Known about the structure:
Blueprint: H1 2-14, E1 34-38, H2 48-56, E2 60-64, E3 78-81, H3 90-95, H4 97-108, E4 112-116, H5 118-123, E5 126-128, E6 134-136, E7 143-146, E8 153-161, E9 173-180, E10 183-187, E11 194-198, E12 203-207, E13 209-211, E14 214-217, E15 219-224
Parallel strand pairs: 1-2, 1-3, 3-4, 4-14, 5-7
Antiparallel strand pairs: 5-6, 7-10, 8-9, 8-11, 9-15, 11-12, 13-14
Amino acid sequence: MAAHIDLELLQALASSGPMKAAPRTPPLPPLGQRIALASDDAFSFVYAALLRSWRRQGAEILPFSPLADQGPDPDSDAIYLPGGYPELHAGSLAQNHGFRTAMHDAAARGAVIYGECGGYMTLGRTLTDAAGTTHTMLGLLPLKTSFADRKLHLGYRRAITRADSALGRAGTRLRGHEFHYASIIAEAAGMPLFDSFDGQSTALGPAGLIQANVSGSFLHLIDLEG
């Protein structure tokens, strides 16, 4: 499944138009010193280059498996839920109370929690799968998403943070891409994480959510904009 999706992604991105190139771009700073990384079949879309960069910058990466009902390391100061396929495992994720409790404990103690794409959906209140079944997610962000009415969202993206966060001070410029079929069926207004733009710098409006130490979006971040 993952190989098929990755090929589709490459083909689609190749036809979506070029992103304005920068000769050299600074790396994305680590989310923390000890970063708990969700890593299993539900959270498998992560850039190896990003993790290598964080390690070079001195961060420790601590994998854990939400599907195995594991929570993040209690000593982690940041938690990263990357992209993947939570819609295929939403029933299991909804029933894994150890994972849920550990994530809420981490949020309460002030750990930085960041989710992108599949991780963003998992941080939300509900996720409706392709069959139309709605599953309860973590509820750490006021977001409801659905695969019942699939719509492709695709392309290179630029993003400018609206508030101070683990991604940088307000006004930090980042680059990444967006590739997902999920639709947002409910999202709280007034707490966007980014202003987003396509690869040609056309404004796309606000993207993502931030609520205290928890944030996320559908963007797969790559680096800072040079």
